[in-house]
Write a structure and sequence with these properties.
Elements (H helix, E strand, L loop, with lengths): L5 H4 L8 H18 L11 H10 L21 H14 L1 H20 L2 H12 L4 E4 L9 E4 L9 H4 L15 E4 L1 E5 L7 E7 L5 E5 L8 E2 L14 E4 L10 E2 L10 H4 L2 H25 L5 H28 L6 H30 L9 H12 L5 H14 L17 H5 L3
Parallel strand pairs: 1-5
Antiparallel strand pairs: 2-3, 4-8, 5-6, 6-9, 7-8
Amino acid sequence: MNFIPLHRHLQDCSAPDPARILAAARAVADRAGERADALDRAGGFPAEDVAHAYEAGLLAAPLPVSLGGAGLDAPERAPVLADVLARVGRGSLALGRLYEGHVNALLLILRYADPAVAERLAGDVRAGHLFGVWNTQPQTGGLSLEDVPDVEGLPGVEDLQGLEGLEAPQGAEAGWRLRGVKSFASGAGSVTRPLVTARRPDGRQQMLVANLVAGTRADLSGWQAHGMRASTSGILDFTGLPADPGGFVGGPDAYFAEPHFSGGAWRFAAVQLGGIEAVFDALRTHLRATGRGGDPHQAARLGEAAIAVETARLFVARAAVLASDPAAEPERVIAYVNLTRLAVERAGLDVLERAQRSVGLSGFLSPHPLERLARDLATYLRQPGPDRALTAAAAHILAEARPADLLWRDPPGMLAPEARSAGV
């Protein structure tokens, strides 16, 4: 490796500087990029890339320094986290998707879990377990918590209904089981510590971290994807697994608490940004190699693609700062992150169109670098509810009293929003 692994730097309990973190991310991304074509197949999980990320300290990096991480959970380090996610995505969108899920899980644990639970799970991170967040499920057969009535002396359904997250009776873990599946579970069969939502007997959703054995319970037969094949997104059957209330994360429906539920979407937009940059670089390399960059039409497309890339980068950078600001207004955060989702999608589609038009048919043929990069990006840009995200942001903008220059920022010395709205 051409860098000092983060975990060595953390032995003195000091947070590594951003340059060191980004160097680790770059090294992981570069190696992932070299292996990405070979993994572009059914079941092609990037196990070596995940192991490299672990060795480099990236798996633990989102943890506070006190728990053995690099402190990327801190609000002031959001710009660094955004750059790390983009760099990993630039090397491999499949690895970026998996890493973003890992980061998301750790941030949810740090935000909502009891400190003792967070400390125990941090030990699993340091031991090399890959985390993820699996919320999607079929309309029928989704994941639920069920009691085991034949376990004498343990609480029944009526007792669980009164629990508020970690307020579970001691010794209850042997009396609860999971039943059902999660679908579109990225890293199914390889993620060993997924954070999942399970339906409680009272109908609300409970976050918990399940302990899985690699290579078990996963059905990847349905993942015949156009792109992102190495993300191995499939169905995971949890039926029969014990559900330990000591592993519960937060109270009922905490997963959906705003603004963090919607506001956290900036992180996958950062990974998408990395994929957009990779397509842009493939276009520029092609024009240089073929000597066609001097053509005015090619130059115009390259310039337009550069505008799109920078637009996406600026949106992601601003969203990272705003969503990580504990003093930011929740509605403002949600609206801006929703706009960021759509701005990055639009930028990605624009870069794809210009790259494919400029390169031509050869860009659709393997082994041209653009062929897989374009498939992966086009697939990953498809996210749930884009129309709803756009119209919700528009509704916020319509109701907002701030002028356009103050919609998303408050310059120092400006009056508070309530004062402005009152005409002060």
